[in-house]
Specification:
about 15% strand; single chain; about 40% helix; 6-stranded parallel β-sheet; disordered N terminus
């Protein structure tokens, strides 16, 4: 998980080694007090992760839409655990509870964290969306359950207003050009008829980014199409399947972890792609 990884920039480590070497040289020249101090500082730089390197940059905001859904709860919870600031739009605060997967024994409780800002509202209303997407927001996660297309269009418009670029959309296996990779579409004709509108909403939501001249075309979007999700604890393993039928299940907690990595990594591998 990102929150437990010690980030050590190469230039930072090289600088520490150079300082360590120069101070050892001073020790040999009998400038002992200066040399010892430098050795301690150099060792700190090389071997120890300073506190300002293990936290996200100050002012890093994540906006979450669909935060009462399984993935949304996980995104909020995991982002807060990593020291990120989170803004969440919630229609029903009674459903906005800590997730079963990552929170374990603390699941099902009200969120309480000074890094979290919760606004009651509906993403179908542009003004409500604008309350969440304020200046400083660096990343957006969208995991909506219904009326995805209209709500996502409002989110895109708000992102442009505050110049936010990175957005992760949790879609579904079977949406867009992944229909042939979904066992549901291949093996259950009746079910696909029943879910025709449901998948259609996913298709038009994705088209807001993937179509030429679409409103979200120039954003740094990642559209994730997960298989059926569970509420199990995170495994720390996410496998992107590039071709063929996608089988199995994945914990919503792992999907959320993947979403946060997609927001945090500047050169994310699947930028402007639709991985399954």
């Amino acid at each position: 998980h990102l929150g437990s990884i010690v980030h050590k920039d190469p230039s930072y480590i090289i600088g520490g080694w150079l300082l360590l070497a120069s101070m050892l040289w001073l020790c040999r020249k009998r400038r002992a007090s200066t040399g010892v101090l430098g050795v301690v500082l150099g060792s700190f730089l090389v071997f120890i992760a300073p506190p300002w390197k293990t936290q996200p940059p100050p002012g890093l905001f994540v906006a979450v839409f669909g935060s009462t859904q399984a993935v949304g709860k996980e995104v909020v919870y995991q982002a807060l655990q990593r020291g990120m600031k989170v803004r969440a739009l919630v229609m029903n605060t009674s459903k906005f509870l800590t997730p079963e997967g990552s929170a374990a024994n603390e699941s099902g409780q009200n969120f309480s964290n000074p890094l979290l800002t919760v606004v009651e509202g509906n993403a179908t209303i542009q003004e409500d969306v604008n309350k969440i997407l304020t200046k400083g927001v660096k990343g957006v996660v969208v995991c909506l359950e219904v009326n995805r297309t209209n709500r996502t269009a409002n989110i895109i418009a708000a992102m442009k207003q505050v110049k936010a670029k990175r957005i992760v959309v949790v879609s579904s296996l079977g949406a867009g050009d992944s229909k042939s990779r979904d066992p549901l579409h291949l093996n259950n004709f009746l079910m696909t008829r029943t879910l025709k509108e449901w998948f259609g909403d996913h298709d038009t939501q994705e088209a807001l980014f993937t179509n030429t001249s679409a409103p979200g075309e120039k954003l740094e979007f990642i559209i994730l199409r997960p298989a059926k999700m569970t509420l199990n604890p995170p495994t720390g393993k996410v496998k992107v399947i590039d071709e063929g039928i996608v089988k199995g299940r994945i914990p919503a907690a792992d999907v959320a972890d993947w979403c946060l990595r997609a927001l945090s990594e500047k050169k994310f591998k699947y930028l402007r792609q639709t991985p399954c």
